[in-house]
Amino acid sequence: MTSTRTWPSLAALLLRVLITALFVIAAGMKFAAVPFEVAVFARFGYPLWFMYVVGAAQLYGAVLLWVRGGTAFGALLLMVIMVGAAVSHLRAGDPVALALPALVLLILLAGLAYRHRDDVTLSLRWIAAQRA
């Protein structure tokens, strides 16, 4: 039996696994109220409840990466979170180096969303068909 997977599809799968692991761990740290996370959100001027909202959104986005037809939506949600993280770092006066991980993840997520862009068009077609 021969495999039909190509190197680009295997690389995309590995990228999705790594991104998922990263965001599940990050969400877990927020739900556990790890002192580092609490301190960062306080330094940014955000209320503590917002940390839990971000953690829930990270977890939801990570799950969507594995839902058929939801990969692009999960990547887009996580992209919004990464934009917020980068802007928060820069607004707080942090060096650009602290915003760099969020910016790198933003680029990787954009590639993942582009690779699964058909998820969005199919969903829009389904919505249009339901309205007709």
From TrEMBL:
Q: Tell me the Pfam families matching this sequence.
A: DoxX_2
Swiss-Prot/TrEMBL keywords: Membrane, Transmembrane, Transmembrane helix
Tell me, in one coarse class, where this protein mainly resides: membrane
Q: Does the keyword rRNA-binding apply?
A: no
What is a single cellular component term in the Gene Ontology annotation? membrane
This chain's source organism reads Methylobacterium nonmethylotrophicum
- Entry's transmembrane regions: 48-67, 72-90, 96-114
Its recorded name reads DoxX family protein
Q: Where is the protein localized?
A: Membrane
State the annotated membrane topology for this chain: Multi-pass membrane protein
